[in-house]
Design a protein that fits this description.
Blueprint: E1 9-12, E2 27-30, H1 41-66, H2 71-107, H3 110-127
Antiparallel strand pairs: 1-2
Helix pairs in contact: 1-2, 2-3
Length: about 130
């Protein structure tokens, strides 16, 4: 997935009170107006594996269409891909809340806390469409 955010601000890791937050990367790119940190390594590995499986499912779907397979079979596979993507989405969201949002609250900055809550509400809203 070749999408990259445009670097606007660079954050350097600072000591944090909560042990779970210590795994935040030392330097990360931040979009304008907010803070971001990278995914936990375990989540990143799991998400990458899931996405590779989904990539295989998509290739299979293309083959099914090219081979003029029965429409209901193609639709069933599309549903399976959608479910797999939903699991990836949920895993990334859980990871985001556990360190990005939690980090904003642990830092105690009310402005950053408000930004993270607004970002989370907007994100969940987009996911539910």
């Amino acid at each position: 997935m070749g999408v990259r955010s445009v670097p606007m601000i660079v954050l350097v890791r600072r000591p944090v009170a909560h042990d779970a937050l210590r795994s935040i990367a030392s330097v990360t790119y931040v979009p304008y107006g907010g803070t971001v940190s990278t995914m936990h390594a375990v989540t990143k590995k799991s998400v990458a594996a899931r996405l590779k499986r989904i990539e295989g499912q998509i290739s299979g779907l293309l083959r099914m269409v090219e081979e003029e397979r029965y429409c209901v079979d193609v639709l069933t596979q599309i549903s399976a891909v959608r479910a797999a993507l939903h699991k990836v989405e949920s895993e990334i969201l859980r990871d985001h809340v556990s360190h990005c949002v939690a980090g904003a609250f642990a830092a105690g900055d009310p402005i950053e806390q408000r930004r993270k809550v607004e970002e989370l509400v907007e994100t969940v809203g987009r996911m539910s469409r």
